[in-house]
Design brief:
single chain, alpha+beta, OB fold (Dihydrolipoamide Acetyltransferase, E2P), five-stranded mixed beta barrel, two-stranded antiparallel sheet, 4 helices, 9 strands, 26% helix, 30% strand, elongated
Amino acid sequence: MPLYRDECVVLRTHKLGEADRIVTMLSRQHGKIRAVAKGVRRTASKFGSRLEPFMVVDAQFYEGRSLDIVTQAESLGAYGAQIVADYGAYTAASAMVETADRLSEADAGLQQYLLLVGALRSLSRGEHHSSATLDSYLLRAMSIAGWAPSFSDCAVTGEPGPHSAFVVQLGGVVADRAAPPARRGSTRRPSACSVRCSPATG
């Protein structure tokens, strides 16, 4: 079986048998990787806590038919402990890795990997409020994946804006005729996380 090596962010893990885990990772060069980490749940495991969510590792794999096998993992970014210690950072990081997992189903490139690593690093250091880091990550990740945010088109009808009404329950900015009567003419500005997104064109 051929060997390969890559830098990866651990997205999630699942128990397998008594001592193994299936680890889902977003890698720098190989996209999303699902691999078995054998014996990782044992106290004497050589991987220790390196293959936990939010960790960045330099890993070596055996290529398998359905699942690869992790043979080595060296820590590059130990962000897990700092993130888990803060509830806001933990919930933001959980949303980030789930988004990365979903967006990388079909295709994952270097930009998605670098964006996620940077966002997790920022969360672990507390550089910005966790909700601001999450909003920024989501907008950029969706843009890289081909979904452009719209701050002016109606979230219900797609009618070009600008529009003055903003209704969270309807998806963001809406035309006056699509807004409930109480919200018509509202001038409240949308937040970055509540805008309607549509496929990018051009």
